[in-house]
């Protein structure tokens, strides 16, 4: 890598689960502010760019130190727009705006406020050191498709989602599986621009603990995340 990676934070205005989720106060500051501050604290970015269709989100983001130089198109702000297309759009706009060819991009989800700045740094270092095409983050899964995740077939039968030649009798004996936590995504430039899928030949996995992996999507998530934040502060 020859230059600092670009950081993007994608946050549209519409939210069906929680109204104005991205700028709703969480422990005294807007939800998106926590992610912006983590990006700044990591020290690995010159540019932290927000992709949004909302003037209110843009105003809050600039206040907390991010950069907003474009408004996301209506097509990319719809419920059906894919996240990868939104990130590509922000990446290409940023290269044109700053006149920089970025070697890599780090996308941070605004709804994952429990990550540490150290997670961003460590995930990026893992990405660079292993020469991955891209990297995703996840936490150890609570349930296993080899042991207690089931699905219903088209003829109505119920079966385990995945099976092995030898039946798994204890969850501890099942292959390790992980839940993607939608916290940090990292791409090399060419891998981002030339692929339409997240899973490539050299995709890295950075594992985070469950207590730093909660994705805020409901009212209950807000309450739970704020509880964990206050608990962490009390333990310092």
UniProtKB/TrEMBL annotation:
SUPFAM superfamilies named in the record: Nucleotide-diphospho-sugar transferases
Cross-referenced InterPro entries: CMP-NeuNAc_synthase (IPR050793), Cytidylyl_trans (IPR003329), Nucleotide-diphossugar_trans (IPR029044)
CDD domains: CMP-NeuAc_Synthase (cd02513)
Protein name: CMP-N,N'-diacetyllegionaminic acid synthase
Species per Swiss-Prot/TrEMBL record: Hydrogenimonas cancrithermarum
Gene it is expressed from: legF
